[in-house]
TrEMBL record:
Listed name of the protein: Phosphate-specific transport system accessory protein PhoU
Keyword tags: Cytoplasm, Phosphate transport, Transport
NCBIfam families, per database record: phoU_full
Native organism taxonomy: Bacteria, Bacillati, Bacillota, Bacilli, Bacillales
Entry function: Plays a role in the regulation of phosphate uptake.
Domain PhoU: from-to ranges: 18-105, 121-206
Recorded superkingdom: Bacteria
Family in the record: Belongs to the PhoU family.
Organism of derivation: Paenibacillus flagellatus
GO cellular component: cytoplasm
Length: 219
């Protein structure tokens, strides 16, 4: 087995791990927001309990990449592929942590009825899930056009975030009894907005991988 063949096999393992990690993050986002929408505390606890598995995947990706750098001494684009895998794993791990934060909001609200049916927050979550999926796809396929789509979807998430904050501010002014839950829902919106930023970071990394220059898609 040639040195290049070994290297390519390890790179494929990195890609496989990133795809699997992205899928777990997608599920964490889905479950955390669903737990909030339904008041499902058991589902929220599942999100929290599953988080160490995501952390372990980041560590495994770091181990594969570190071993590749130490043993294969890659240069140019091959080196960028590995360094970007480190960065992507870090972004995904942070997204999973933010999903845990949403699950913890579900637990804090507990049995208290929601002040309003959730519409925009689940919509934000859907966009962020799509961004997560497509950012990984962009990396695997080295698809710059798909990577640049992150900026448009990030703008959509930012718009929804601003809309949610305005609406919740009105709730707090009109009825001070809603302040605590309104603030918690503001936090959830902010967590989703931050997830979109992390997915956009992955898009930037893909552009850097292919073109050797990093754009600012969060601008």
């Amino acid at each position: 087995m040639t040195k290049r063949h070994n290297f390519d096999a390890s790179l494929n393992e990195l890609r496989k791990q990133l795809i699997e990690m992205g899928g777990k993050v997608e599920q964490a986002i889905l479950k955390s927001v669903q737990s909030l929408k339904d008041g499902n505390q058991e589902l929220a606890r599942t999100v929290i309990a599953d988080d160490p598995a995501v952390n372990a995947m980041e560590e495994h990706i770091d181990e594969i990449g570190t071993r590749l750098i130490a043993t294969q001494q890659p240069v140019a684009k091959d080196l960028r592929r590995i360094l970007i895998a480190f960065k992507m794993a870090s972004d995904l791990e942070r997204m999973a942590d933010l999903a845990v934060d949403i699950a913890k909001v579900t637990l804090r609200i507990g049995e208290e009825p929601l002040i309003k049916p959730l519409v925009d927050i689940p919509r934000m979550a859907e966009i962020v899930q799509q961004m997560t999926r497509e950012s990984i796809e962009a990396y695997v396929d080295e698809n710059v056009d798909l990577a640049y789509r992150m900026a448009k979807m990030d703008d959509d998430v930012d718009h929804l975030h601003s809309q949610i904050l305005r609406e919740l501010f009105v709730f707090m002014v009109d009825n001070p009894k809603t302040v605590n839950q309104s603030l918690l829902l503001c936090f959830v919106s902010r967590y989703l907005e931050r997830m979109a930023d992390h997915a956009t970071n992955i898009g930037e990394s893909v552009v850097y991988l292919v073109r050797g220059q990093r754009p600012d898609l969060n601008a």
